[in-house]
Structure formats: structure tokens, C-alpha cells
Amino acid sequence: MSLPDADLSVAPADAGSGSALDRLRVRETWPWLVALGIFVLFCWLLSPILTPFVLGAGLAYAGDPIVDRLQRWHLSRTAGVCVVFLVITLAGLAGLVLLLPMLTDQLRVLLQNIPEWLAWLQNHGLQRIGVSLPDGLRLDAAGFKVIIAEHWSEASGMLKTVWTHVSASGGALFTAIANLLLVPVVTFYLLRDWDELVAWIRGVVPPRALPKIGGMARETDEVLGAFIRGQLTVMAALTVYYWIALWIAGLNLALLVGLIVGLISFVPYLGAIVGVLTAVIAMLVQTQELLPFVWLAVVFGIGQILESNVLTPLLVGDKIGLHPVAVIFAVMAGGQLFGFVGVMLALPVAAVIAVVLRETKKQWLQSRMYSHGAPAPAQAEAVATAGEGAATPPP
């Protein structure tokens, strides 16, 4: 009779201690949540100047494993960073030497074709969609002179507006150049001090939470590193494929279209859609024969099969664990909230959120709230067996 009494006296104490521990965890957690909210608000307010720092952090994250390997070869951290910078600089210069002449030729062809495009638009394109120009109006140099002469009074105000936009664009161009020059400086210092930054972050994590947070950080690092390496390889492979395939198909702007498709292929289906539209417009102006468009359809059809069934499963796989619609939403939400910085951070942040959601689901499935009222495993198995027996018709 005394043993049940002892049990009854222990249970309330355990419940009370558990409740006190939960309240303590809540009191310790909410300041961190407030700090996180303030940090997000701070980033949103400073998003126009964050681009070089985000690019520098991404390059430092990608180059840290290489520098760590060089350190194992008995190089200092600073020397390893200098070696990585030298290799990247030489690779960039080699790429410019190879691609810049071809891009210059493509742009020259693009500018030379503008009069032909306007003539085709006037003589064929507008007629096919049922649009006709006013009498005496032509889409050529003479026609533009007539339009300017007839609307000169309005053109003066328009010129002021254009000049305002050009001035603003000049300031934006200067800012972009300054940010571009700032990226290698930020990358150098972050890459040199990367291990110290990681150690500092690890030092401020509460010791009792370090095993769980450390495991999530390692999982995020593995997922993010594999995804970035795989996605960059897919982008490079698609650029080369569309460049060569469209050149074989006879498209004059094959290199430009291939670069466009490759650079935006990290968003599912967007690269293919933009590439098809760009290639069709370029080919439509270049020629009106049917056969080149058949070759374009073949090129993009093979490209989609290659991307969906070979490159992405082999090189990327399901690294992040997000549905393609979720990836598209992440990119659009990042762009809406933080502009270009948000687009760059969308997939890395999505990878972190995916890891956190998997850990949250695991904790939820192991919680008492989820399992409250559920039958014991043996009882559940007996109920399932009885259900199967009842569903089986008698012989």
C-alpha cells in the first residue's frame, strides 16, 4: 500500500518540475526570437548596400574548404587565401580572353540587326497580329525624324525626363561598379577569418543546445555545399549545351541565348521559358523559314530532357528537399523583400529552412502532444490485425 502512495507523491513533483523547466525555456527563448526579428528588420533596411557583403560571404563560404586543404599542406591561412585569389583571377582572365571577343561579335550582330528587325516588324509582324501603323509613319530613321519633328514641344519635356533617368542610372552604375570592386576586398577578409567567425558563433551558442544546433549546422552545410556545387555545374553544362546546339541550329545569337539560359536555370523552368522566347524572337527576325524553328524545338526539347533526367538528378538531386514550386516561391519572395540580395539568398535560406523544418517535424513526431491518446504499439498492431481479418470475406 505504501508503494502506490510514493508513486503518487512523485508524479506531481515531476510535472511541476517539467512545467517550471518549460517556463524557463520560454523565458530564455523569446529574447533570441526578438533579436532575430530585429536582425531581419535591420537587413531589410540595409538591403540596398548588402550586395557586396552577400557576394563576399558566398565566395568565402565556397573557398573555405580549398583554403583548409591548403593549410593541411602547411601553408598559412593568408597564403592559402592568396593562392585561391590568384587561381580565381587567372581563371577569370582566361574566361574573358576566350568569351569577350565572341560576346563582342554577338553584340555587334545584335546592333546591326536592329534596322532589319524594325523593317520586319513593320512589314510582317504587326500585320500578323492585326496592328497597322498610321499613314506616313514608318519604323526607320526617316520615320523617327518625322515623329520627333511633329512632337518637338512634347519631346523637350520628354528629354528632361530621360535626362533625369539617365542621371539616376549613372548614379546606379557608379554604385554597381563600387560594389563590384568591394566584393574581392570583403571576400579576402571573410575568407581569411572564416574559421575565427565560425568559432565565435559556436562560442555564443548555449552548451546544452550545441549538439543539436551543431548537427543542424553540419547538415545545412552538407546540403548547401552539395547543392551549390551541383547547381553551378548544371548551369555551366546548360550554357555550353545551348551555345553549341543553337549555333548548330543556325542562330546568330547562340552565345547570348546560351548565357541567358544558363545563368537563370537555377529557377526551375524559368531558364527554358526565357530561352525559348529569346531564341524564337531572334530566329524570327533572322529568317522566316519553318525549318530553323523546328531545329529550335528539337534543341530545347533535348535540353529539357537532359536537364530534368540527367544533369539535375545526377549533379543536384534532391539536395534541398523542396518542391520546385517552393523554390520558385522562395526566389520570388526573396526578390520582393530584399531585391537582388534576396534573389541571391533565396535558395541558401530555403536550404536552412528545410533543415529546420525536418528537425521540427522530428521533434513534433516525438512529442507527447502528438502521441497523446494514440494506442500503444502492441494495441495498434492488434487493432490493425483485427481490421484486416474483418475485411477478409469468409470462404
Total helices: the number is 15
Number of domains: 3
Helix content: over 70%
What is the overall pLDDT average? 74
Poorly predicted runs of 5 or more residues: 1-15, 386-392
Query: Could you say which overall geometry the principal axes of the C-alpha atoms support?
Result: globular
Order of helices and strands: HHHHHHHHHHHHHHH
Largest sheet features: none
* CA radius of gyration: 30 Å
Structural class: mainly alpha
Q: Give me the count of strands.
A: 0
Description:
This protein has 395 residues and is mainly α. The protein has three domains: 47-131 and 139-204, no CATH class; 215-319, no CATH class; 320-364, no CATH class. The chain has 15 helices and no strands. The protein has helices at 2-45, 51-72, 77-112, 114-128, 141-150, 152-192, 194-204, 210-248, 254-263, 270-286, 291-316, 324-338, 340-365, 368-371, 377-391. α2 crosses α3 (77-112), α9 runs antiparallel to α10 (270-286) and α12 crosses α13. The longest helix has 44 residues, at 2-45. The radius of gyration is 30 Å and the shape is globular. It starts with a helix and ends with a helix.
